[in-house]
Amino acid sequence: MIRAGIGGVNLTGRLAAKRMAREGRLKYDGGAMGMGRRNPVRVGSLLTSAVPALAERMLEQTIRRQWADIVGPDAARRSRPASLRQGTLEITVDNSPWLQELTLRAGTIAAALAARHGAAVTAVRVTMGAAVAPASDEVSREGRAISRSLTDAERGIVEATARPIADPVVASSLRRLLTKDLLARGKSGIPVASEQP
Asked: Are residues 113 and 171 in the same domain?
């Protein structure tokens, strides 16, 4: 139940707050939040005291937002924090050179995380994983990756290149490869292999 009054908003209701206080999850002084001499309580603090497992999730999101500052812009483009479980941050990278680089830098990364977040992150584990999330310049305001499709001319180039290949599996693989190449080069204006001298 939500109660609004002159002194503020009581998100939990008095009975729920008393029950949470009995269970040791929330300190309850008998009044509504924000009333009296107490300072306002941040919603994040209130939620983590009510749902302790949420604290690790909120820290995980904070680390994701700060990732480029923690590891640097080059490493941030090739890696991302995947999960935080029991104090161990799992970092996913997209290729083996960055796996080795970040594995060697794991101690430095753990120290930087400890300086920012205290003892909440005690270890770092680096793994190979799926494609890294797109860089911030490739993401729209809503947080979705901006996608583009091939033009008719580009589709014609792909089909004309793959048509002479008799093996359907190889032809399909070539179509996928050429499509990815054209999509990647389309934004940067780099000429495709067939257009280079």
From this structure: no
The span from the CA of 142 to the CA of 92, in Å, is 23
Residue 145 in domain: no
183 CB-near residues (< 8 Å, 6+ apart): 148, 150
Chain length of the chain: 197
61 and 24, same domain (yes or no): no
The total of structural domains in the chain comes to 3
Residue 29 belongs to domain spanning? 3-51
- Would you write out the chain's pLDDT as a tens digit for each of its 197 residues? 455 455 555 554 566 666 666 676 655 555 555 445 567 887 777 777 777 777 888 889 999 999 999 999 999 999 999 999 888 999 999 999 999 999 999 999 999 999 998 888 999 999 998 755 554 444 444 444 456 788 888 899 989 988 998 888 888 888 888 888 888 776 545 555 555 55
Tell whether 144 is covered by a domain. Answer: no
* Residues 9/14/20/26 CA torsion (nearest 10 deg): 40
- The pTM of this model reads 0.48
